[in-house]
């Protein structure tokens, strides 16, 4: 049985001696925490076979709802844009690469964000950690996108201790929204002295302890972990002293444990404040784990990783937990990151038990309300999603039912990272992809390849690949030749999404953004952008 999720307001109407009573139920708005890990691999958490010590997140997942068909985009900025707007990145111009330091673009100011909607619904809204949706002008920064406060960094990654962006400039701020609507921004130089996850945990705890509990609470906690650089306090590495042959994996597991301790601080603060019993906690990764030297992530048994359209790049570790719900479920419904905006705003407006409430008007978005599907009361409200369309590279991918279609080149044919033998047994898959790598010269090296038509003439055609990712999640068997009608139907759907796409916003770095002009700190530098 669900625990109490409504405030029961008793109106006593004294009508003569009968003393009749009328009871009206008003939805109780839950507190909502969305925690996003960065670059976490499919098999980096214990419930997918990892040796990581992560009792807090594992406990929440095991007693919550594990989402096994939860999809995101292949890299950071597109996923975060989709989460914040409920729209595919191809409609936002954020579908090609990520926003690099000093590039004068970001999530368009015309877009209403998840934080904006939560604010409209009466929530106190806070962001902690990574932003990565643009900061060329103050109008693109978190406190101008619906958040009451923001604590962390604007760029895509930085060092965990010194808080330096890739160019060596400082990037760590505490921003608050003033009563006049302007942002008050403080560069937090003292952050150089402390591991970033400790700072994020302390800030989240401070927000929770200081929260006015007459209002509902929304926390967007965008973890820096487990993105490079591979930095973690030694006490966490000491937990894995038994691992000697794979140092990158050892460090990754240590970073997962540090992330878990951070989650523990947040959950403990919510419990101590009396807020936990009315909280919905969502956990996901922004993309799959990257492959190659210097990375310890594992996406086994999924093929590929970050940057690719393969399952290892876009199928995301995710779960939802709430004391308001029955837990211990593994959910295989199709969920996309764009669905969180309509799902969470519905939840914020209607409460966890209300299935017939309409929720706020959201306009022309791509996400759908999946609350009933997540809690197991109905099938998924979607049968397909757009993986991406990249007009610059000239590729696209679509998931429809069990099928996944690739149009154009989208990654190396042999994309596969063998998992560590001390954690996973994958000999059959290893042999398959090793053979594929040996035969890679058989595959065309560009988007176009020659085919023979029925009349015997040659022509150029866009390369397509089709996989059944339900029967074959490792994407080992290409099926386009066996199911031409499915390929044709899916190509038509891609054309539809292409008609709704806008050209990427990407712009080269603006010299006037140089941090040396702003005291060595990455700072918004334009009036508008």
How does this model look, in words?
This protein has 11 helices and 20 strands. It is α/β, with parallel strands linked by helices. The strands form 5 sheets. Strands 9-8-7-6-10-3-11-12-4-13 form a 10-stranded mixed beta sheet, sandwiched between helices. The chain has a 4-stranded antiparallel beta sheet with strand order 15-16-17-20, covered by helices on one side. The longest helix is centred in the middle third of the chain and has 26 residues, at 247-272. The chain starts with 5 loop residues before the first strand and ends in a 29-residue tail after the last helix. Mean pLDDT is 91; it is low at 1-26 and 446-450.
Structural class: alpha/beta
Low-pLDDT segments, ≥5 res: 1-26, 446-450
Strand content: 15-25%
Helix content: 10-25%
Q: Please give the count of helices.
A: 11
Strands of the largest sheet, in order across it?
9-8-7-6-10-3-11-12-4-13
Overall average residue pLDDT:
91
Number of strands: 20
| Coarse shape | globular
**Main sheet: strands, sense, barrel:** 10 strands, mixed
Q: How large, in whole angstroms, is the Cα Rg?
A: 24 Å
Distance between the termini: 51 Å
